[in-house]
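Progress note, sequence design subtask.
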């Protein structure tokens, strides 16, 4: 991969992931789509006492994206 290459999220599409943002926010949800800048649409996010919702995550603020291990 080149120095400025963006890793592909194709393997994580439609799977449950945890995204850690540069401001310390951690989101868990399902990746519905993404683009070449690693902007992503994350759905099925829920807060402790709230309804599930979706967000668009800006790729420049993403520190890590990790698939959720469903075996735990």
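Output:
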């Amino acid at each position: 991969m080149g120095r400025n290459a963006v890793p592909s999220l194709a393997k994580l599409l439609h799977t449950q992931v945890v995204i850690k943002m540069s401001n310390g926010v951690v989101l868990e949800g399902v990746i519905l789509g993404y683009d070449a800048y690693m902007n992503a649409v994350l759905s099925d996010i829920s807060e402790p006492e709230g309804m599930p919702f979706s967000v668009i995550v800006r790729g420049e603020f993403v520190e890590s994206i990790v698939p959720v291990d469903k075996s735990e």
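Strands lie at 16-21, 26-34, 40-45, 53-57, 62-67. Work on this subtask will continue into the next period as scheduled.
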